[in-house]
Design a protein that fits this description.
The chain is mostly helical and 46 residues long. The chain has one helix and no strands. The longest helix has 12 residues.
């Protein structure tokens, strides 16, 4: 996970680290959800 840049920190809620962890582990089950939007095709197993 990339750290939040200091100039953008105010854009995130105080508990962002916990929210992010829950999304990555519970909802996404550790898998990429980008559906290829990054321009590199579909990612699997991440």
């Amino acid at each position: 996970m990339s750290p939040i840049r200091p100039e953008n920190r105010g854009r995130y809620p105080k508990d962002w680290r916990e929210i992010s962890l829950r999304i990555r582990t519970v909802r996404a089950a550790g898998r990429c959800e980008c559906l290829g939007e990054g321009g590199r095709g579909t990612h699997t197993g991440r």
